[in-house]
Amino acid sequence: MFSSDMILDATLLPAMLVALVAGLLSFLSPCVLPIVPPYLAYMGGVSVTEMAEARAARKRALLAASFFVLGLSTVFLLLGAAASTLGRAMLVWQGWFVPAAGLVIMLFGAHFLGVVRIPFLAREARIEAGDRGGSAFGAYVLGLAFAFGWTPCLGPILGTILGLAATEADLARGTALLATYAIGLGIPFLLVAAFFPRLGGVMAAMKRNMGWIERSSGLLLWTVGLLMLTGQFTAFSWWLLETFPALATIG
């Protein structure tokens, strides 16, 4: 088994923080947030109105959302393992691989900031999962389809976390990064399912501020890419430990 000291150290902690924030920003992206209520209602076999008014309907939606999150987490964990394995195979070229990954991530950030536009990343290659609303298995299948089908739209943010996982070149650490990303993306689905009526105003406000959210995403990606390009990501990790000594007790 992997020890906690192997998985959590000064280098990985800030990367996990980035992955958590990236997952949340993915949830808030224009291609995810607007479809959350109808997706949850469909998976639970209820209508959006029922989900807003009936507690029993929200319980069904919450159960379905749990299996949905399990489905998308399955895909992200597999992607994390694959990226880490690739990174391990490329250890001999690590000297240029990390800066190259940083440049690509900076390009993703520029896409979100509107400096450049990458048409492929603005499309969703949606995969239909059939008429499976109302069942746990169907929700799990939809989670798998969502993770694969929305990859082009989530590409800049997800690609950043995969790049970090690849530079880790360790299966446990890379998988931990993608698990953290899945938590950041999946937990909001569960919260919306559980507290849908109370969160309506919050979601509406987020939709009105999509431009700000996209720019924040772009700034995060550009900064992470710059740190990787200049080799300062590890230095940033140690700065975090010096500034917040309590982090050293984790694990």
UniProtKB/TrEMBL annotation:
InterPro entries named among the record's database cross-references: Cyt_c_assmbl_TM_dom, Cytochrome_c-biogenesis_DsbD
Superkingdom of this protein's organism: Bacteria
GO cellular component terms, A-Z: membrane
Record-annotated Cytochrome C biogenesis protein transmembrane domain positions: 15-213
Pfam families cross-referenced by the UniProt entry: DsbD_TM
Localization: Membrane
Keywords, sorted A to Z: Cytochrome c-type biogenesis, Membrane, Transmembrane, Transmembrane helix
Membrane-spanning segments: 12-40, 61-84, 96-116, 137-166, 178-199, 219-241
Gene Ontology BP annotations: cytochrome complex assembly
Membrane-related topology note: Multi-pass membrane protein
Keyword Iron carried by entry: no
Family affiliation: Belongs to the DsbD family.
Protein name per its UniProtKB record: Cytochrome c biogenesis protein CcdA
